[in-house]
């Protein structure tokens, strides 16, 4: 029964991973909640506050649903397929919101330069269009993906995704996104270099917030 053993292994791996992910999410939330209240909820709200909360809580929702999908809780094929589409489209929305935060921070680093804002937004529009096109092409067509119910025993069932196209479309689509992220990182590092030179000439310590913003840009790109 090698096929049955393979299904059992996949289900056990999925369930164990899901429990770990959900545990880490709630642990991180409890750990950071006090700081969030102090530095976010109790301060005057701005556009960046709304973006931060949207990314944080929407990201947590996606992570929890992704952890539950595929075996931790049984879902019929129709429900499982709908949840799968929701996860994929939500991930695109989440990454776009993350890019908007990076654009907003770069706009602040460059002293609210309108040319920088316009260039970044104009280049960002094709990225959004690419996300939408790939979500339709890769995930929303029955000819590209299907959900199959795997029955191990009458009481042990789960749904798995079957992909009917190769990885090359996704690889090609990721190239413009990676190039755009590299562009954002280069702009952030250039702003940091200029800031450090100016501070050195004035014999002042670098602004901690500028360093942290650039660090987050680099970490986002690496991840």
Condensed summary:
The chain is mainly alpha-helical and 223 residues long.
Kindly list the characteristics that best describe this protein.
223 residues, mainly alpha, two-stranded antiparallel ribbon, 2 strands, globular
What can you see in these coordinates?
- The protein has 223 residues and is mostly helical.
- The protein has 6 helices and 2 strands.
- It has a two-stranded antiparallel sheet.
- The two termini are 39 Å apart.
- Mean pLDDT over all positions: 85
Distance between the termini: 39 Å
> In sequence order, what are the helices and strands, one letter per element?
HHHHEEHH
Quantity of strands, as a count:
2
The helical percent reads: over 70%
Shape: globular
Assess the beta-strand content as a share of residues: 5-15%
Work out the radius of gyration: 22 Å
Helix run count: 6
Strand and helix layout:
Elements: H1 2-41, H2 47-68, H3 77-109, H4 114-139, E1 145-153, E2 156-163, H5 168-201, H6 208-222
């Amino acid at each position: 029964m090698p096929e049955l053993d393979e299904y059992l292994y996949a289900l056990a791996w999925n369930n164990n991973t899901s429990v770990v992910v959900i545990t880490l999410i709630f642990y991180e939330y409890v750990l950071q909640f006090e700081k969030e209240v102090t530095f976010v909820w109790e301060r005057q709200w701005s556009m960046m506050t709304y973006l931060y909360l949207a990314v944080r809580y929407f990201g947590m929702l996606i992570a929890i649903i992704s952890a539950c999908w595929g075996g931790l809780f049984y879902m019929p094929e129709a429900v499982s397929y709908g949840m799968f589409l929701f996860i994929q489209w939500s991930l695109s929305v989440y990454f776009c919101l993350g890019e908007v935060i990076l654009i907003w921070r770069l706009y602040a680093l460059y002293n609210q330069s309108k040319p920088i804002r316009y260039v970044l937004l104009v280049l960002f529009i094709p990225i959004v269009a690419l996300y939408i096109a790939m979500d339709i092409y890769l995930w929303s067509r029955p000819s590209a993906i299907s959900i199959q119910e795997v029955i191990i025993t009458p009481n042990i069932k789960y749904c798995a995704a079957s992909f009917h196209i190769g990885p090359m479309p996704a690889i090609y689509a990721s190239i413009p996104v990676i190039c755009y992220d590299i562009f954002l990182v280069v702009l952030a590092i250039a702003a940091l270099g200029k800031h450090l030179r100016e501070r050195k000439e004035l014999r002042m310590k670098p602004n901690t917030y500028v360093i942290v913003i650039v660090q987050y840009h680099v970490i986002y790109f690496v991840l």
